[in-house]
Amino acid sequence: MISGKVVLGALAGIAAGALIGVLLAPDKGSKIRSKIVKQGEDYLDSMKGQFNSLLESISGKFDGGKVDVGDSKKANSKEAKRDLQPAAS
Fold it and tell me: Into how many domains does the chain fold?
């Protein structure tokens, strides 16, 4: 019984909110919908830009790590070759 009252109250609140929204809307519904879509696209583009910046930052750090490892391998291999060669007298 209590849950029925909660559901009825929620539906009444939704209906009242929709009615007030329609009565107080500054523009036609089609204009409001187009504004909402435009704003959503702007947010999406902003998020894509931030995500791409994050990926570039991470890949730059990853590539930098690869170069450091590669340089250390080269240095170690040259040292290893020198160590293996017999000493010249």
Answer: 1
